[in-house]
Amino acid sequence: MSPDELVYLGVLAASIPVGFLFRYLSPPVKQGAALLLGLSITIATCQVHTLHSLVTVIGTWIIIKSSWRHAPALILSWTFLYLLFFRLVTWFGLPAPTPFSNAVQLLLTLKMVSLANEVRSFHVEKKTEVSSFAKSPVIGGLLQEPSLYDILSYSYCYVGIMTGPFFRFQTFVDWLGQPSPQALPGLVPCLQRLKLVPVYGALFLAANSVFPLAYVRTEEFLDQNFFFRWFYMIAVFFVFRMRFYAAWCGAEAGCISAGLGCYPEKALSKPGGGPTVNYSLDPTAEEKFDFRTIQNIDCYNTDFCVKVRHGMRYWNMTVQWWLHHYIYPNSPFKSYTLRAGWTMFISAYWHGLHAGYYLSFLTIPLCIAAESAMEASVRSKLGPRGQNIFDWVQWFLKMRAYDYMCMGFVLLKASDTINYWLSTYFSMHIIAVCCIIVGRALKGGKGEGRRGDKEEKIDNVKPGEKTD
Fold first, then answer.
1. Could you say which of 92, 142, 307, 435 has the lowest number of CB atoms within 10 Å?
2. Contact (Cβ atoms closer than 8 angstroms) between residue 357 and residue 335
């Protein structure tokens, strides 16, 4: 493991026992302590680069105070333009940011855009209540506009400061105001989330030592036969998954220990967004709670869901919620595939400026179009047994598509990514294009946009499960 990875591991490990201590603090003390600890971690790891995050927060606060009505669009522009400056600071003679400051800046960008939308919703609903004399039906809305201290506390809250998951400002406020945090579930769900982390960590270390990424960039690798080169991407994506499975499960455990994102099951919470229905606690009944709000990874469904589009749903789930609510609806396109492409482009930009991100993320819409074409032209005409076989084949191709796209994500450079894809003869691109051609030849491509939007509302299935 690299020194940076050891620091991440140390922060994650320390946050878990610290979280249990935070359950004993009153709301004002909890808010101040979370800010102080988070800011200390940021300064210790980012040093002078902490100023980038501070400038972002102050700029967001100024925009909200100046024009809450236009804050969502203005703050999205502000934070994304600052990300560009942040990544090009060396052009201006400034020191290059550290990986830690990059992680803080990425999560802060999500938080500030979400905050702007929450503040705007608060003011809009407040005006509606005044004009209609009716209480707002908004679920989990703010009760007041946050102060600068509130925004700083949310921005630098120690929970997930560098690793995530993303959570809304309202989730942060609910955490501070929990009436009996010590009575909420903690140890059992925390251990449940941690139980496979040693397995993921061991698999990551073992596989990474056998299949190092650097080997892909050598001439010796290109001299290997096609099947070896094609198999190598499967091993690389396995290493990639194990690394993030371990990290994100650990990050979720840090949230669970502190009680962040704990809501009654009847609130029907969504990862990232929180409760989706209004609820009230019944003091006479035994409530069941969950931590769905801060769930960032569903390891089983990531591996065994059938479709590429569903694979995204279970990976980095809180960020997917953010993209789905703040980027996807504002896409300039109507077609599902093009809207997905726009969302993936924004996601690539958020991750960084490396060409590999764009090559990988912008391959996803091609795979989605191939799925839609084949499902309409082939799967819909098969019987139950045929559909079962189709699903297994589609699952296999989905996994290979993610293996293939992962290479761009980890190699980063356009030349390295294209050289690797060329060594596999652009196999997944060719398969996707062939599926689209076959689908359209069988008249399966018509109405893709409407099918795509409809399928977004249907839960995915694993291979072998029946569908309606």
1. 92
2. no
